[in-house]
Amino acid sequence: MSSALFIVIGTIEVFAVLTTALRIFRFKVSWYLRDILIMSVVLALSSYLIRIVLAIPYLDMPIAILAVIVFMRFAIKVKPHYAVILSLSGYASYISVQSIVYFLLSLILDFDSALLTQQQGTYLYLLQLTTAGTTMLLSFLLYKLGLGFTFIIHPPHSFNIKINKKKEGKVFYATVATFLILSGALGFLLSGYGWVAYIIVALNFIALYILLHRRSEQE
């Protein structure tokens, strides 16, 4: 039962990351719904294998991110650097929401930062489901309100169209840096310095939003 629950919740989490990544840039999620569902199940099964069966959880996220980048490139059919931007934007958004959800839940329940290192457990499942649900709700609101960034044209992309390497390079490196910093913020959270992690998450998310917004206005 616990194995099935792990896979189901993992599927929901991946689904939230993928749909959010697409809706941030105003892509039509309905066009890729089947592919997203298949990818969500595949990554959930992969996560179970890596975390529970093989017991090497530190490899789970790197492998998942690489898989999502490949998914964006070949299933969504965007250019390679856009695949990276889409993937890391989705994960950065999810990590930001999870940090806020963790903070709010820790005020209500007896949450401990150690639960973030666990592979299974009631509180961990609660955190995962609440984060995924909140992320999907925000994603849906982006869709309903017609919000999001527009500098990445809707796929499939033509490789004959030239891009502005200077403008796209800034976004690419800023997205990578933001993701790495947000991931590093989890280290502070695990060390008991939650307030430092929350400040880092807030500042980086705001900075990335401003950069993406300015890039959209240049179109």
Q: Could you walk me through the main structural features you see in this protein, from its secondary elements to its overall organization?
A:
It is a single chain. The chain is mainly α and 219 residues long.
Shape assignment: globular
Question: SSE order, as H and E?
Answer: HHHHHHH
Distance N terminus to C terminus? 50 Å
Q: What is the overall number of helices?
A: 7
The portion of residues assigned to helices is over 70%
Beta-strand percentage range: under 5%
How many β-strand runs?
A: 0
- The low-confidence parts are none
**SS-based class:** mainly alpha
Oligomer: single chain
The radius of gyration is 17 Å
Largest β sheet strand count, sense and barrel closure: none
Mean pLDDT: 82
What structural keywords apply?
219 residues, 0% strand, mainly alpha
Layout of secondary structure:
Blueprint: H1 2-24, H2 33-53, H3 60-74, H4 80-108, H5 122-145, H6 165-190, H7 194-217
